[in-house]
């Protein structure tokens, strides 16, 4: 049915289609919340970061921006769901239009800007989630008007507030759509930020009497190769448990009129660079960190390439937009 529905959906502006999709997913989630059993998730289970996953394919951050409808994504077949990016205070994001389809290339450009309802609303919505057939991760970031010198306060506030409601956290310092955010990947800024966030997590676990949640760091594909080893060592020393490679890129690997739009590029053309970054991180980490591969995954072969490069888990986003609700189950059938 998606083959025919897609024709209508793609006539709508990209963000309008996204909003309609989220309304439909909220309805799906509502139905599952009224059921007495969780949605069935296909695939062979894996254990990573001390967590059990029905399968290693997860939803990348950026689609569920705080609507909190993981049940609907689990029903599609995802083995885990990453929600976010979530900031301490509600944020409207960048002016529209800010999401663009490069349909001829199966790609997207977005400059959304961390639009989300804020950590307090997300916390309340997470309490309504009744079924968790797989882990739920929360991707956290800083508000746009928070100076980089105070960024750690935003990350630690989000982790403390949301701590008992997530199975893992992801620190986002790699989005290209918040001015200056990627500067936090520099060694002198990244180390203190990671240490403060990990310490906030440990403190929250102790205060609430719950198990410590793993914290991961999401990296940019535009980092220089020479910096990747440094980041691995910094992450390990700080208590970070895993790395996600990668976020969207500022490169424009296709020829399309929409490449003139500012924002992060995602799609199958990102696969070579995101996988190369992943491979280098795996070589530097020597098994000391969990690795998640994301960026350009459209097929089972793409997912297998991520695992061959060193990933234990794989995430998908752009190809879901083009493949529709059945995309993940089709991918898993060949995985």
Describe this protein's structure.
- With 335 residues, the chain is of the alpha/beta class.
- The protein has one domain: Aldolase class I (TIM Barrel, Alpha-Beta Barrel).
- It has 11 helices and 13 strands.
- It has an 8-stranded parallel β-barrel with strand order 3-4-7-8-9-10-12-13, surrounded by 5 helices. Strands 5-6-11 form a 3-stranded antiparallel beta sheet, with no helix packed on it. A two-stranded antiparallel ribbon has the order 1-2.
- A hairpin with a 2-residue loop joins strand 1 and strand 2 (51-53).
- Helix 8 packs parallel to helix 9 (300-309).
- It is globular.
- The mean pLDDT is 96.
Chart the SSEs and their pairings:
Elements: H1 2-9, H2 14-34, E1 46-48, E2 51-53, E3 57-59, H3 70-76, E4 80-86, E5 99-102, E6 107-110, H4 119-126, E7 136-140, H5 151-162, E8 168-172, H6 187-208, E9 215-219, H7 225-238, E10 242-245, E11 264-266, H8 271-285, E12 290-294, H9 300-309, E13 313-316, H10 318-323, H11 327-333
Parallel strand pairs: 3-4, 3-13, 4-7, 7-8, 8-9, 9-10, 10-12, 12-13
Antiparallel strand pairs: 1-2, 5-6, 6-11
Helix pairs in contact: 2-3, 5-6, 6-7, 7-8, 8-9
Domain module count? 1
Helix content: 25-40%
CATH topology: TIM Barrel
Query: Beta fraction of the residues?
Result: 15-25%
Give the second-level CATH assignment, the architecture: Alpha-Beta Barrel
* Main sheet overview: 8 strands, parallel, barrel
Which sequence of strands runs across the widest sheet?
3-4-7-8-9-10-12-13
Mean pLDDT: 96
